[in-house]
Amino acid sequence: MMKRKVIKSLGNKQRKYVLTLMLAGFAALNTGFTSQVNEIQTENVPAVEIAADVNTVQEIEVATAEENSAEITELKVEAVESDINTLDMVEVEEPARENIIETSYGTINYSNVMSMEATAYLPTDGSGAGITATGIRATYGIVAVDPRVIPLGTKVYIPGYGVALAADTGGAIKGYKIDLCMESYSDCMRFGRRNVTVYVLD
Fold it and tell me: Can you give the pTM of this predicted structure?
């Protein structure tokens, strides 16, 4: 109300001057407000850009982490495949079989095996008393050996003859020769002279 009264009391020139001043003031106020808005917007732009940059960096870090994880997984798979291939190339040794032989007596363990020339004799051969070098009576299952090859008192197994005891010696039994005691002359003739496999028992 006061503004209107003041303007009415002025002359026409004065009114125009006052109105011009007022319009200039409004324009100045509007320009200042717009400038401030622009400054605010300008000041906010870097923040938006920084936020965008942060998001971009985070996206890059996530992508890099995913790529690194994929590369690590691929390397692990390659390492496992390499280990499997290495295992395939390694020759697996078969476990050592125990020294056993299946016989009519059952499974027998042996410590040594050798090929020998075998002959047969009767208990009455030699001195005729039928007593062996170890002092026991000669009978089926007693064999004469060279003690340097098979120690006296050693048990042996001879396929076709059976389990025997090395308890005798002989003048002609030297080296890898063995003399098997038989029960009859016909058995001796039937056996003759042959190569046999001798298993030294545990």
Answer: 0.52
Q: What Cα–Cα distance (Å) separates residue 63 from each residue in 54, 57, 58, 72, 73?
A: 14, 10, 8, 14, 15
pLDDT at residue 65 in the model: 58
Can you tell me the distance from the alpha carbon of 164 to that of 180, in angstroms, rounded to the nearest whole number? 9
CA 23 to chain CA mean position, Å:
93
**How high is the pLDDT of residue 83?**
61
Burial 23-50 (b: 16+ CB within 10 A, else e): eeeeeeeeeeeeeeeeeeeeeeeeeeee
How does pLDDT run across 93-135, given as a tens digit for each residue? 554 557 898 888 889 999 999 999 999 999 988 767 889 999 9
Burial label, 94 (beta-carbon count in 10 A; 0-12, 13-18, 19+): exposed
**Structure-token pair, residue 115:** 């090929």
- Find the angle CA(189)-CA(191)-CA(196) to the nearest 5 degrees: 150
b or e along 66-75 (b: 16 or more beta carbons within 10 Å of the residue's beta carbon)? eeeeeeeeee
Residues of the chain where predicted confidence (pLDDT) is lower than 50: 2-3, 5-6, 33-34, 37, 40, 42, 45, 47-48, 50-51, 54, 57, 87-88, 95
